Fold:
Amino acid sequence: MSHDRFALFPWCVLAIGILAFGPGAAARGAETADEAKPPWPGQYKLRPDETDRLTEADVVGPDGLVYPDWTYAGVPGGIPRIEREVPVERFGARPDDGRDDAPAIEAAVEHLARTGGGAVRLGPGTYELDRPVMIAQDGIVIRGSGAEATHMRFRYAIPPEGAAFFRQQPGDRVYRDTWLQLHAVPKDLAALEVHIDGRRVTRRERSTHWGNTFSTALSGASLLDKAGEGKHRLLGIAEYPGGIRKETSLEVTLSKEASPRPERRPRLLGAIQFAGRGTVGPRVKLAADAPRGSRRIELESAERLVPGDRILIEAPATDRWKRLVQCACPWGTYRRYRLVIDRVEGNAIVVNQPLRLEFPTVDGSYVQKTEVIRRCGVEDLSLEQTENLWISGIAMSDAWECWARGVTVKMTGRHACYAVEAKWCEIRDSIFDDAWFKGGGGTAYVGWEHACDCLMENVTTYKMRHAPCVQWAASGNVIRKSTFHESDGQWHSGWTNENLFEQCVIDSKRGHGGYGYGMWASPPEDQAHGPNGPRNVVYHCQVRSPRAGLWMGGMNEGWIIVHNRFVVEQGPGIFAKTASFDHVIRGNVIALADPKQPAVNLLTPDCVGIELIDNRVFGGSGELVSGRGKPVVARGNRLLPATDDPPLPEPAVPSIFEWQRKQRAGL
Structure:
């Protein structure tokens, strides 16, 4: 098989004109596209009778479509009920007394970690957090008495001086693996610097994607390399317009010794933070291409790998691959997956799940061990943030089999509840209400990032920017039976693939940082996000939007858009451009308020192989399809008069996710 057929796209920053003027502004890109030919041969548009093409990664559905396999999504076996509990009052916390309860919660966590794990029980009342609660041990649950009864108030703030070092205290010993952060008031912040004994160690300056940045991080190793062991003075400097500087200093003792309590540096800071260690050890290159659907991966050496190891597999975003997918984004990771080794056979490993993508040797694909935090969760409480700082509510990084259940997060600083570098995590039965900062730069999302096989179910959000949202190599995730008020649905960046949005209600509105589309997939010319990958699925959702109901920016292969209702004020029901190809668009209801708009706009001629079957279109221009692309199949579609109350589709199987689970269970 050609390597190019799986070349995945890197991220790119979205041209402002596309966001400002909608799909028509992208027409200029169509002039440079190969006429009526995608950049690589498609491989995801499959038929049930093509048995020679079907792999273990494919599931033939009850409607004759071939879907990805989502039976792996969520905590394996479901979220467990952790019976063992310790009351946080045993460690000094008291609700409603106005004092900081973070030290008591962390002390309870340490106790449970030493004695086999369990739940920290918080009773009714309000608990205060004057700093994030950091959890790096497996098997720990933070459990309240119900979101209406147990309230956590996150009060962490920058001191009046305007800058401070985070967590370290005067005289602390700093080891090579210690992580430090300098925090400063974010409003108008221009730059952050850290010096040791008068010599600069790091500097961070405001950039395009600065967002609400208020911190810069560094390691003990960088300080040791600059100054050596012994007592030293750190100076933190925050710069603001007009030559204003805020400074803070800290005396520490640097040591080359191994830390007695190694710290895990979180990828995303949260009021409640679960953090694994991440990738460890060498990158081991593949000795042969690992095809889609395979469980066997040939390596140059499997000497250091054993059954049970958790691994990351990645195909780097090489120049070859970026050219193939026309990606303008200069950074990012796109083709990734996370797996467990079942067996080692010589220099080959056999993993627990089939690959969703091909990982070719031509791009230097490799595997690497990863150390994660496992089976932790937050349950039955509410969390509110009082300060406008770019800190998330509940953050899980390098986390597997972790969850949030029955939680309410109000006024998050960044993301209400978010997981990165994660697998088999779950968020359910929760409410996420508003965010402090919505000014762009990666904020106010609800979904999954660099995450595999995670599940979100029965979640309600208000006033977020992008919800539901998957980004940066997110694959095999399911977001279902959830309602998203005043936000847009997004495949936001980085070659997301084989994710399912099912039975979701999305009411997209402008005003909270969303783009105004019902659902949006970033295009290859976007220099901050890049395009999205193959076979994402939208099944039985209800979408209402000011602009196009579904906007696909390009390089999207083999998407399945079935049994949805799109109600659109302006723009087409579904829009595609730039090698967005081989889609199945079937059984949808599309209601168009604008009499000039078609049901589907295939803007560029390389939007080929698209099937339009049994869709009902209410209102609009009376056209089924416009643009230079032509569907390969168009049958059973009906053009009907406009209506204020378009019907809901009624698929034979309301949930493809539940159907797959029942099939696997033999029910």
Confidence is low (pLDDT under 50) at residues 1-33. The radius of gyration is 25 Å. The longest helix spans residues 102-114.
